[in-house]
Amino acid sequence: MAQEHSPSPTPQRAIYGFVLYLSSIIGLGLYIVWAYIPDYWLHSVGLTYWPQKYWAVSLPVYLCVAIILSYIAYTGLILIKTPALDDVRTITDRRALYADNEHSHPEAIPPLRDLDISTVNALLYLD
Hints:
single chain, mainly alpha, elongated
């Protein structure tokens, strides 16, 4: 019998989560040390190879700009992929399931189906 996937905690997930938590705390600590402690203090301790302080500011800015540009690019991709208003794909698609009323019981609740555009227009716009 195959094991089902569940979101419940398992020992393996707990270990991975704890390691991820520790590594993020250590990474934040190293970033703060690199960004705020002057270079001559780091050199006096023996830490001589660090990236320039410029990158402590520019990397988060580049990341924020990349996130904003990804939102703009995703919106543009959606607008490019959307069919025009006069295209038939805005009305129906190949997976549409239209109602078949002749096989259902008259007092039963009808199954969930798509409505034909002529039926929708008749219901909305004709008296």
